[in-house]
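Ticket #4471: structure export looks truncated?
Reporter: QA, pipeline team
Priority: medium

Steps to reproduce: submit the single chain below to the structure queue and open the exported record.
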Amino acid sequence: MENVRSIISYNVNGLRAAIGKGLWEWLEAERPDVLCLQEIKAQPEDVPLLELEALGYRHYWRPAEKKGYSGVATFSLQPPDHVVYACDIEEYDREGRILRTDFGDWTLLNCYFPSGTTGEERQAFKMVFLDKFYEYALNLKKEQPNLIIVGDYNIAHQEIDIHDPKGNKKSSGFLPEERAWMDKWLESGFTDAFRYKNPALTEYSWWTFRAGARAKNKGWRIDYQSVSDPLKDKIISVNQLTSVIHSDHCPVKMVIDL
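Actual output as written to the record:
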């Protein structure tokens, strides 16, 4: 079992707020091998790191240039062999959307895909991101065939992944063109790890703060762990940790034999 790894992806919707709600205590109890955070909304110097380091985690950051916005961070018990802090697409690097860590013969991308919920301009930005990210990931997969891409994709792929598919068919995150991109993504040599292990299970990873949606489980599954095809049969389990509450998202945990 020495190669079995637990990888957790978690949109914390503000790292400092999540720490205030007990994130470090949860991390100490859970102890994943790697924790990938999205929407950290912080620079490393803004965060109390001594507790994190005392737990044995190395930490790597790609914050957004804009204060209090976006950004990703990867915490790992094992130091990566190589870290890449940019995808060399300037408009996405400015927003802190992709962080790459290499461990031996496998590569992990921690990603925060744009949301299109604030209007047409950001929806257009999101669709361009999806096209450019697709090309970037496929090129990377040629170099690094054992590729794991986790994070907040901001897309619910199928009707099973959203509590009200009919009512949301014109909502950003469930638009036909976004869902078609997910189809294309999963036909290009990637597997949705959760759906592969749980073909009929309804679990969500995000709930609006409005109208008691989380208590009523009126959610969306928009946080994913995609693995390249050589790794798919190495997945042991994947689940949403729905009882963990530091954010409007919950963590997604994959256990995989690498």
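Status: closed, not a bug. The export was complete when the record was re-opened. Leaving a note from the reviewer for reference: DSSP finds seven helices and twelve strands in the chain.
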